[in-house]
TrEMBL record:
It holds the Pfam family FtsK_SpoIIIE. InterPro entries: FtsK/SpoIIIE/SftA, FtsK_dom, P-loop_NTPase. This is FtsK/SpoIIIE domain-containing protein. It comes from Actinokineospora guangxiensis. Keywords: ATP-binding, Membrane, Nucleotide-binding, Transmembrane, Transmembrane helix. Residues 197-379 form the FtsK domain. The chain crosses the membrane at residues 12-33, 39-57. Coiled coil: none annotated. ATP binds at residues 213-220.
Amino acid sequence: MLVWATGKAVRLAWYYPTSTVLGVILMLVGIPLHGLGGWWLVGGLTLAVVVVGFWLWRRDPEVFLTRVRWSRTELRRAYVYAGHWRTVTRLSGLSGDAKGREYRPKLMRTRSEWWRDRVRVKMIPGQAPEQWELRASGLAHSFGARSCRVRVVKPSVIELDFVHADPLARPLPVPEMAAPGPSVNLKRVQIGRTETGKPWTLKLLGGQYLAVGVQGAGKASILWAVLRALAPALRSGLVRVYGIDPKGGMELGQAPELFEGGPVYSNGAEAVELLESLANEVRERSARFRGILRGWSPQCGEPFLLLVVDELADVIAYQTDKRLKERATAALQTITSQGRAPGVAVLGLVQDPRKEIVPFRNLFTTRIAMRLDEAIQVDMVLGDGVRARGGNAHEIPESTPGVAWVKEDGKRDPVRARAFHVTDTNITELQHYVTGTSATVFAFPETTITNGDTAA
Ligand SMILES: Nc1ncnc2c1ncn2[C@@H]1O[C@H](COP(=O)(O)OP(=O)(O)OP(=O)(O)O)[C@@H](O)[C@H]1O
């Protein structure tokens, strides 16, 4: 009994360290003062702590919950998880019996943040993370969360993310542009923030990018956030950008000076010639580098090349001239498959991810799924099984343009992130920064109409 009770006490102290320490302190205060009304003092102190905590929570719940994460962790563990763990895992079919013994997944460490609870679990023998992925929705409902994602930590240990709120609900303003001069790290180009608060970075050097989303999903913000992050390198000539905007220049036409030779505003011969000239550059550079360099670096004396194609489908699928379509597809395949070492990257934006539209999706090393209509489209972009790990891009609400699920080749789990919101003023500022012309952006003047109304 003593061994059992000691084991229980150690386990309790391990999972509820702060409550245990506080309890011990209160007992140490209360017992010596027992005869002097010490327990009243302890009760009063406890009440004071609770009242002050409640007041702080009412004032600013987010700050309170961030500051006293331990209390949230221990409270939620006790009331939400520990109490129902056995029943929920049993009813979900996640525990089992063998040789008359019940095997139950073990609830390990929990950590509560203001928007999610991270719950570590030791699986029972013979269990696979995929079994938990299949039951993720049921687990979320059982523990009162909006969604549940499953991550593998190490063999037989997984972490469940129970999500309660969206940390990316508010638009992210673009950061100030870097001062001209310092070179940009092309392996870490920041274009937004992930839901855990870390920078969302693209590895342009060595990567090829495909962003897919319905109309209004915020694809353009990815494009402009990349160009803004590259601003010092565009200004110094370290990076050259080429652009194709078959939608008649509605997007790239906002800052044509940023693009080498100006953007191409059609999907015809001019666009195909640009693609073929870049494919040739890839081959020529590879030949020049062979035996001398392993890959492009800022010291190699040649600029890094980035091709941006807004609405890729117009160039490789909706083109009615079969010959032009084939030439465009072949050139893009060469750039995406061989461009890594010679320093040529592609950022393609598209609305429809079907194989008939982008037959070489797998050549893009990072695929970005923004808001999509159907679950099957998510599988097409991110790959099979990624949705079960949380990547539900078809559930991104319309109210959060710029939010995306990102899947990099070689990484098991997708990442949820939001691109910076780049406004028209930000784009004008970028253009002046890169071209070296100075300009002040004025707000639209307000005119007062004689009947007293004000119009912009
Ligand atoms: N990252 C973002 N944060 C907040 N709002 C955004 C963001 N990106 C875009 N928006 C807003 O969402 C709307 C649609 O964005 P955008 O035009 O970039 O979508 P799109 O996917 O490029 O659409 P289309 O396919 O029609 O070109 C715009 O009003 C824009 O201001």
